[in-house]
Amino acid sequence: MGFLDKLKKGLAKTRKSLVDKVEAIFSGRKIDFETLEELEEALLTADLGVKATTEIIDFLKERSKKGEIKEISRIKEYLKEEMKGMLGEAQPLSINLKPYVILAVGVNGVGKTTTIGKLAARFRGEGRSVILAAADTFRAAAIEQLEIWANRTGAQIVKHQGGSDPAAVAYDAIEAAKARGTDVVIVDTAGRLHTKSPLMEELKKVKRVIEKGLQGAPHEVLLVVDATTGQNALRQAEMFNNAIGVTGIALTKLDGTAKGGIIFAIRRELGIPIRFIGIGEGVDDLRDFEPKEFVEALFS
Hints:
It is a single chain. With 300 residues, this protein is α/β, with parallel strands linked by helices. It folds into two domains: 3-87, Four Helix Bundle (Hemerythrin (Met), subunit A) (Up-down Bundle), CATH 1.20.120.140; 100-290, Rossmann fold, CATH 3.40.50.300. The protein contains 13 helices and eight strands. It has helices spanning 3-10, 12-17, 19-26, 33-45, 49-65, 72-87, 112-125, 140-153, 166-180, 197-213, 231-244, 262-270, 291-299; strands spanning 100-105, 130-135, 156-158, 184-189, 220-226, 248-252, 274-278, 286-288. Helix 9 runs parallel beside helix 10. It is elongated. 46% of the residues are buried.
């Protein structure tokens, strides 16, 4: 199965909660206050968020006043047009420095370490050397999991004993990368609740130490969020962004949710680029986010 087909299949639940509802709302009916109110509810239910939903409703109202929308196919075309505009152009990760340092953050259970492993596999497949920094020192299982990924992908790993200072692990990984001429460093961090201040302070420390170890680093602060959590993913992004400045997002588990509309909420309300989307368990199922492709798959 090609990636586009897999994406279409992965978005089936979101499509059902959004596109199918749009068709049902306007089937045999005209655009008026009642149908637009129903559409607004459908968009919010699909987790597009208030800002994106309001923009879409206002957009359709304007087109309707001009007499440009008279049938369901036109409504869908205008929706697609507006959604593509909201997401903008693709903004893939650009590795243009050496070593390029990625600080991976997120709460527990979002698939952060797995995402790191998949990124390592991707970079190794491109012929790049990779160091994984096991800075989640609170759980021995986290270090072991990262080590498995290192062995599987041919990446190097820098680790300390469980309970060690996470910032020290990150620093040692940076020093190792500079000494070895490594292309990419990916720093794993402990999954933490975005509402727990002491843990967020520790994350800030890790970032500061990375900055001291290499000027301009980290070059990417990648927040991993779980699409199935809907609006909670938006709140996580807000909190992490306020604390340490998120530069990109990896959205996992899109294949298991009806809440894929969260992509629009994150993009419109925070303006943070979606770098990657995950639509399956396979190593190759973490892909660059292509906005136009995503919208087309959603409507097809």
